[in-house]
Amino acid sequence: MTAALAVRGATKRFGAVLALDGVDLEVQHGEVVAVLGDNGAGKSTLIKCISGVHRLDSGTIEIDGQPANITSPAAAQAHGIETVYQDLALFDNLGPSANFFAGREQSGPAWLPRPLRVMRRRSMADATVDVLERLQVSLPDRAAAVGLMSGGQRQVIAVARAAAFASKVVILDEPTAALGLRESRRVLDLILRLRAEGHAVIVISHAMDHVTEVADRAIVMRRGRAVGEEVPSPESQQRIVALIVGTAAEPADSTNTNRTTSPGPPV
Ligand SMILES: Nc1ncnc2c1ncn2[C@@H]1O[C@H](COP(=O)(O)OP(=O)(O)OP(=O)(O)O)[C@@H](O)[C@H]1O
Ligand SMILES: [Mg+2]
Description:
Rossmann fold, six-stranded mixed beta sheet, four-stranded antiparallel beta sheet, 8 helices, 10 strands, about 20% strand, binds adenosine-5'-triphosphate, binds magnesium ion
């Protein structure tokens, strides 16, 4: 089976910091892979290299078995990769449709007669409604400015926007951080729907119960390296935590480490 996304030997240095040290990662179509690790482990750097924000110092990225030269966010998007960053980057004063198409407006060239440009705007609104319906996302008001929406609704719109344009890979950095139970539920449901539609999904999360619920596989990063992999379940949770804090090869109550607390959300 050809992986939707294959990263091999990813290495990235920031000055003296080796943020990525030969990381391998494969994600299949219809698979959700969680990337776990303590603060500073290299998770965001890894996804930023895949989504074109940073360039790898060495290593390769393949999409559907073909080498992908990802030199910019636009190049990543052209390869069917969409990313939702933790800060979401939505335009608060615009509604969902304008947010969906921000930077890819279909208003057409300026020489188009105005009525035709209005029609393009309508088709963007229709397309947005189509996506929201396809993903079974219900919003109280689909035209309201997203700045007036709750954190969960904004998160759902950001994930739905990524889903709308990603043909292959959807990357989510902390998609349920700061969300309540019900709002988290909606985002988790959306992730499961993306998987059902055959997307390859990468989720960075510190919320172990959410990882257990949606991820088929979890890879753990520590100090820039991929140090282990587990199928998330209530049984494997302790092993995952041990990988995260670096006590995996030692007894759980080992005291010869300066990192004995289990990771919570970043503070
Ligand atoms: N743009 C940058 N310039 C310099 N150093 C960076 C940069 N981005 C990340 N780093 C460093 O690389 C390392 C990995 O950072 P990264 O943001 O990938 O961690 P993370 O696993 O996402 O952590 P967190 O859970 O806190 O988000 C850290 O030591 C960080 O200080
Ligand atoms: Mg991060």
